[in-house]
TrEMBL record:
Magnesium in keyword set: no
Signal sequence segment: none
Organism whose genome encodes this protein: Pseudonocardia endophytica
Rieske domain: residues covered: 9-105
Lineage of source species: Bacteria, Bacillati, Actinomycetota, Actinomycetes, Pseudonocardiales
Cofactor: [2Fe-2S] cluster
InterPro entries associated with the record: Rieske_2Fe-2S, Rieske_2Fe-2S_sf
UniProt record similarity statement: Belongs to the bacterial ring-hydroxylating dioxygenase ferredoxin component family.
UniProt-recorded name of the protein: Toluene monooxygenase system ferredoxin subunit
Record-linked Gene3D superfamilies: Rieske [2Fe-2S] iron-sulphur domain
Length: 119
């Protein structure tokens, strides 16, 4: 069995598949789950687990500006990952590159820490 390497560039599909104002959830090759969000003409990759109680954000709501975790309705700004409600949290963001029309996400070697906030 091959060891999973973290902290490397992971392919995440065609850039054209993430349209302006859309969000998709993906499990990358190294096991990291990410939200791919296209806002303001740029695709961003955020950690795919909510910092509140680490629920998957696969079914999160997205209105073009705000990502909402449906478990307890925490909200995050899709341009920065900053917490909107509550403001004391954030979605960790991973670097994204587009190479020959394909998205690559650089996953970090250390998983983002769970953050404190209102229950
Ligand atoms: S797990 Fe996302 S708001 Fe609670």
């Amino acid at each position: 069995m091959t060891a999973v390497s973290q902290g490397s560039w992971q392919p995440a599909g065609a850039a054209d598949d993430v349209w302006e104002g859309e969000m998709t959830f993906q499990q990358l090759g190294d096991g990291t789950s990410v939200l791919l969000v296209n806002t303001d003409g740029a695709v961003r990759a955020f950690h795919g687990l909510c910092p509140h109680q680490e629920n998957s954000l696969e079914d999160a709501d997205f209105d073009g500006e705000i990502i909402t975790c449906l478990a307890h309705m925490w909200e995050f700004d899709a341009r920065s990952g900053a917490g909107v409600n509550p403001t004391t949290t954030c979605l960790p963001e991973y670097p994204v590159e587009i190479r020959d029309g394909e998205l690559y996400v650089h996953t970090s070697s250390a998983p983002p820490e769970k953050e404190a906030g209102p229950e």
